[in-house]
Amino acid sequence: MLEQLPVLSLLIWLPLLTGVLVLLGPGDKLLAWTQRVAVAISLVVLALSVWILIGFSTSTAEFQFIERGEWIPSLNIAYELGVDGIALPLIVLTCLINVLVLCGSTASIKFRKTQFVAATLLMTGCMNGVFLAQDSILFYVFWEAMLIPMFLMIGIWGGPNRIYATLKFFLYTFFGSIFMLVALIYMGREAGDFSIQALQQMPLSETEQKWIFWAFLIAFAVKIPMFPVHTWLPDAHVEAPTGGSVILAAIMLKMGGYGFLRFSLPVTPDASETYAMILIVLSLIAIVYIGFVAIAQKDMKKLIAYSSVAHMGFVTLGTFVIAQLASADAQSMALQGAMVQMISHGLVSGALFFSIGVLYDRLHTRQISDFGGVVNSMPVFATLLMLFIFANAGLPGTSGFVGEFFVIVSSFQADWRIALFAALTLILGAAYSLWFYKRVIFGKAANEKIERLEDVNTREKSVLIVLAVLIIALGVYPQFLIDIMQPSIEQLLELSSVSKLGG
Amino acid sequence: MPYNLMHLLPEIFLLTAGCVILLVDVFSKDLDRNLTYRLTQLALLATAIICMVQFPSVQYHLYERHFILDPMAGIIKISVIFLAMLALLFARPYILPRRILRGEYYLLHLFAVLGMMVLVSGGSLLTLYLGLELLSLSLYALVAMQRHSYRAAEAAVKYFVMGAIASGFLLYGMSLVYGVTQHIHLTDIANYIATNDASLTLRFGLVFIVVAIGFKFGAVPFQMWVPDVYDGAPTSTTAFLSSAPKVAAFGFMVRIFAYGFIGALVDWQGLLIILACLSMLIGNIVALVQNNLKRLLAYSAIAHMGYFLLGALTGTSEGFAASFFYILAYSIMSLGGFGCLIYLGKGVEDVKNLDQLKGLGRSNPWGGLLISVLFLSMAGLPPFIGFWAKLEVFLAVLNAGFVWLAVFAAVMSIIGLFYYLKVVKVIFFDESEKEEKIVAVRGLRLGLGITSLSVVALGLFPGKLMQLCAQAFEYL
Predict the structure, then answer these.
(1) What is the mean predicted confidence (pLDDT) over A36-43?
(2) Are B198 and B148 in contact (CB under 8 A)?
(3) Are the Cβ atoms of A144 and B381 closer than 8 angstroms?
(4) Mutate which of B373, B392, B425, B460 to test chain A, going by most A C-beta atoms within 10 A?
(5) Residue among B403, B417, B428 whose CB faces A171 most closely
């Protein structure tokens, strides 16, 4: 009976419906119960995603757990869901982050708590939908719908400059995705079918591919975000409440990377190859230049936000360096690196934003200069944060190392200069991460308030420990993750290496 | 020759009902006009039922081909009636405390609906003109209902003068067409164009007709009346004005372009492209700086007319279906939007400026949510109906090969998003100075519930409505 359960639909609709019910429910009057129900449902959703992980066959690149239903037959738009090795890790990550946010960061929300819970759940449902959709229009619907709860989350619970930040966030992302919509409609019309698989297989002329590639690029580059369209991210991160920052950094940015892998490479292979060099250069700028920018930051959240942009540079580098690579092994290594980097960054940046949230809840400031000597009063917190900082700097043994290492090694085979610039991150990453840690944690207590700080409570500790365990696990044994995605990556490489031009 | 009048039953019934209600209203002593209101709603409902029972599955050309009965006419009639009923639901609580309360208000609605029904069934230039004038005259009177308000009077005069000019243009264009083709039936005109080359005079006539249509839709550069009339008219009238008549005017446009002038596609297509682009551009950009809610909605209406024209300008049945879907979606959203303004008003005080919505999400979570849903839907965000409307017209223009037009429309919708978001921002993010609960009467709540529910439900399951829209244009 369990086999007949539409698990993928449940992953989407369980959080969505719970979110709607919470929104329409009794409100803050029954807050405790609402929160309990929300956490319980989220745990069920997480369990379902783990169950998919267990039942997932790693020997095939085919989509699994496929569900298909009619939606808009007149336009050939179907309700089609499926999961493969690229989507699966991201889904588990989404479900996990959802639970952690609901457990860990609702406490720091001071008003309209149930609405915050609802927004989190709605977002989780939509994000799962993005990763699961096998129909491009369905994909787009979730992609856009997700913006609404995030818009409200930053706007309602955000910092002083929240309205500017949230409008900028919404307009930037909408600006990107509307062109993607036009491209999707154009292709769906030509192919007569809006399913992603059909788009991947349809032939496209060179000019068509170029236009479509740029349309996709705007959408995904804004989302991931790439230099030079990254400027919304620091604003959004700084102003968002902790939970919003975590979701934004851990999952929403990954959608850009997912989009590159799901659309850009297989749908427009020739254009991807033509423009690969531009994207490689932009990625390197993100890694090096934004790395320097991160060093100069005075605001903790901004620093982590810029470091996110630099880290996502590795994802785009790994994705597009394959055009310059000759051997299939090196190509698949580059994509593995990009994927591992996405998951790792999801965990690490999530953990860092949680940590900053812990500090912010206590002192209500994010300025690095307001801190110092935190280790004296918060030893447990300082230890955990050290691990996250090391992971952010890409220290071996943490998950942050694996992805960067894979990408650097494979880009070495393309051109040593690319690898050289990419490897600069080892210095820059260490610089901004460790210097940040030094200024905040070590030294003499900056003021009396810091001396009186209380260490992390059980709730905060458990959230951070879960993330810490996963970061180390992924750093020590990344093979588990690689096994899951290997068949899908190979298939993706096959699709992206075959030219769509001519016959 | 004996005629079978059964095909005209809905129109005849509505006319009779209108006359009877007029008499009842004269002799009714009820100051609240409850009876008139109920009878009006009942008459509309009955007409809708008759339309449904008589729903034509094929196309009939009746009464010397002056009258066309086909699925398109059927669907438009039914939707127009339902939109009018919803508009009355909103109008009732609005006109009760104000001094617009007269039986005529309801009756004018009835006659406007009758005009629309004749209009969409017009098979010749004569019937079309007749229907359009009946509709327009009722609307002029509805706008002028608030006699004591000088803004409403100004709006009415503007609307009347502009409308009269548009009618003049239309009549002149029709006379030119008649002069060239010697026909007033749309099918004969189509045959004439198919066999003869469209002469300069004919094209000249066509341009005048396009101008008139531009006036009726409020497309740029014929949009001047829209903001003033929307703003000056009683809100309940604006709600009606911006919904049902637009759907009917769409039917008029299809009759003219698709039935009469399909052979001259190249001639009117270029004109419509200009109208559409200008409307999207001017409407969206001017709306950015509006602080008055009714004017904001008016400029947004202008922009929406631009998107709507995208489908129709392709001249294919698929394109008309897309436009039909768009105009239906827009009518529901616009009706809901003005309904919300009525809902937000206090006593006889109208809500005017954006600032008055501050903190609404906090003091009235439900009201705030409803308005936000409507505005986000207008911005074309999924999962609301506005998204599918945009998708359909994009698909239609791409099918016709106008990729640049789709990209232009996409860019314009980014601009549009900004002012819709601004409204949501004011509702949810700004703090209000005072908190007060809004109490709305049951009819208003029902109406708002229906509109926003259909915006969400049709956003999740748009398939059926799309199919229906496609069905309407099988006989092109």
Answers:
(1) 90
(2) no
(3) yes
(4) B425
(5) B417
> Does pLDDT of B274 surpass 50?
yes
Q: Which of B365, B413, B463 sits opposite A72 (nearest CB)?
A: B463
The verdict on a CB contact (< 8 Å) between A174 and B414 is yes
Angle formed by the axes of helices B442-460 and B317-344, to 10°? Answer: 150
In this complex, which of A140, A152, A175 lies closest to B414 when CB atoms are compared? A175
Average pLDDT, chain A: 88
Are A174 and B387 an interchain contact pair (Cβ–Cβ within 8 Å)? no
> Is residue A119 a part of any domain in this protein?
no
Distance CA B329, CA B314 (A): 19
Instruction: Let me know if residue A148 belongs to a domain.
Output: no
Predicted structure pTM score: 0.92
Candidates B354, B366, B419, B428, partner chain A, best to mutate (most A CBs within 10 A): B428
Asked whether A367 and A426 are in contact (CB, 8 A), the reply is no
3-state DSSP: chain B helix, strand, coil percent, rounded to 5?
75, 5, 20
Distance from CA of A167 to the nearest CA of B (A): 8
The answer on pLDDT for A503 being more than 50 is no
Instruction: Return the amino acid letter for A400.
Output: G
Q: Exposed, middle or buried, B1 (CB in 10 Å: 0-12/13-18/19+)?
A: exposed
Range scoring the smallest mean pLDDT among A57-71, A375-389, B168-182, B374-388? A57-71
A145 touches chain B (CB under 8 A): yes
Structure-derived torsion over alpha carbons of residues A420, A421, A423, A424, reported in degrees to the nearest 10: 120
Structure tokens at B222: 């014929």
Whether A141 and B467 lie within 8 Å, measured CB to CB: no
Please tell me whether the peptide bond between A6 and the residue prior to it is cis, using omega within 30 degrees of 0.
no
Q: Which of B413, B429, B462 sits opposite A155 (nearest CB)?
A: B429
Is the CB of residue A171 less than 8 Å away from at least one CB of chain B?
A: yes
Expressed as residue numbers, the domain containing A451 is 268-490
Q: Cα B16–B21–B27 angle (5° rounding)?
A: 135
Chain A positions touching B467 (Cβ under 8 A) are: 73-74
CA distance A362 to chain B (A): 25
Q: Tell whether omega for the bond before B71 is within 30 degrees of 0, i.e. cis.
A: no
- Is residue A413 within 8 Å of residue A327, measured between CB atoms? yes
Interval A138-173: pLDDT, tens: 999 999 999 999 998 898 888 888 889 999 999 999
- What burial letters (b/e) apply to A126-149, b meaning 16+ CB within 10 Å? bbbbbbbbbbbbbbbbbbbbbbbb
In a domain, A116, yes or no: no
Chain B interface includes A405 (CB < 8 A): no
Give residue limits of the domains in chain B.
Answer: 6-471
d(CA B467, nearest CA chain A) in Å: 6
Number of domains in chain A: 1
pLDDT, tens digit (0-9, with 9 covering 90-100), for B55-108: 888 888 888 888 988 889 999 999 999 999 999 999 888 888 876 767 888 999
**Mean pLDDT of all residues in chain B?**
89
- The residue among A185, A187, A208 with the most chain B CBs within 10 A of its CB, best to mutate, is A185
Query: What pLDDT is recorded for position A132?
Result: 92
Q: Is B429 within 8 Å of A141 when comparing Cβ atoms?
A: no
Which amino acid appears at position A219 of this protein?
A
Q: Please give the distance of CA B293 from its chain centroid, rounded to a whole number.
A: 19
The answer to whether the CB of B202 falls within 8 A of the CB of B160 is no
Contacts for A240 with CB less than 8 Å, ≥ 6 apart: A153, A154, A157, A158, A159, A162, A165, A248
The encoded tokens of residue B385 equal 């109906």
Across the A/B interface, how many CB contacts are shorter than 8 Å?
A: 84
Please tell me the distance from the alpha carbon of residue B80 to that of residue B246, in angstroms, as a whole number. Answer: 9
The pLDDT of A86-111, averaged and rounded, is 87
State whether residue A192 sits within 8 Å of chain B by CB: no
